[in-house]
Amino acid sequence: MQENNEDNSLEVHCRKDMKLSRWEGLEVLGEGTFSKVILATSLISDEVSYSEGHLVEQHLKVLPIESSPEKKKCDKLVAVKICEYGTKDNNEPNNLTEISAKREIDILKDINHPSIVRLKAWNIEATRVILILDYCPGGDLLKVASEYRDVLILQLLRRIFAELVAAVEYLHARKIVHCDIKLENILVNLTYHELEYRHDWSKYPFSVVTLTDFGLSQRIDDNEKLTIRCGSDDYAAPEVIMGQPYDGRATDAWSLGVLLYALLESRLPFDPIPNISQNHRPCSRKSHLIARVEWCWVKYAKLKNQLKSDPDDTSRHSIESAMQITEGLLKRARDRWSLSQIAGTEWVKNAIQIEGGIKFRDEE
């Protein structure tokens, strides 16, 4: 791929049959050691279409936000992920970054689910990989859970979890395991004000969240065990922490359990318990607590003992169901609930009641 120095444009290969268009950069959304994500807009130009499967060239123009006065008139917004694994002067690639970026492309090319990020276009160069992905205006779920906790009413939380269970089941059915499920890798498709509006979330027609970041994902055989330790320790299952061969489907399920606990309790299950003096806190390291599956309810500890006092209270029944699912997932591998068991529970199965299923956000 060649870069045009005059207009600072980049050519990328489209995933599907698309029109020739220009991507204009608006602002940098995030930046790490080897990668950055840019908000960009698709500006419609030549109405040229191509046959199925043909790779089409598009242009990405990355500009400072100040030079883009038409931001509010954007036809379409996308997130452009640029992974750098070498430089033009010193072409010694960072192998892990290169492998991760290319793996992400390989996986995303075969995925089409409303609650999983879509790869719209990509390009692989000698020193970097460029991915054009869905843009999700609500930020990640960690930010929402931390800064906008008030919008995460139980019905919305239930809807979010049900979407994620369906998305991960979709992956597992295609022999793909994510291996890095966490709040930071769940993007929210709605803004704070849209979340604040009290929808009937069970009937909201479009996806609310998007599972993203497939750099650590793996393709696996039916009975294959993985051995590579990857992902965040906070979300790692006991068998991963202990260095045992593990089933990626079961560890994905564990990570969903950690995520659900975090949404309910506003803390991670193996973090130090708040409002307890240092003398009364467990002295074990976090990894030891995970390996022994030693966790407890804090916010809902008292509620758990009161739930049966009013069997007709639907909100308490919903909380109890969420707690039971969490407890079923945060178990040792031999006792852990499978995703099919979770999907079959009333709390998950009835969380989405949309004829024909959830729609992609860009569907009419």
UniProtKB/TrEMBL annotation:
Organism: Erysiphe neolycopersici
SUPFAM superfamilies found in the cross-reference section: Protein kinase-like (PK-like)
Matching InterPro entries: Kinase-like_dom_sf, Prot_kinase_dom, Ser/Thr_kinase_AS
Matches recorded under Gene3D superfamilies: Transferase(Phosphotransferase) domain 1
GO biological process: intracellular signal transduction
Swiss-Prot/TrEMBL keywords: ATP-binding, Kinase, Nucleotide-binding, Transferase
Entry's Gene Ontology molecular function annotations: ATP binding; protein serine/threonine kinase activity
Pfam families the UniProt entry points to: Pkinase
Keyword ATP-binding included in the entry's annotation: yes
One Gene Ontology cellular component: cytoplasm
Name recorded for this polypeptide: Serine/threonine-protein kinase PRR1
Entry keyword Zinc: no
Domain Protein kinase: from-to ranges: 23-348
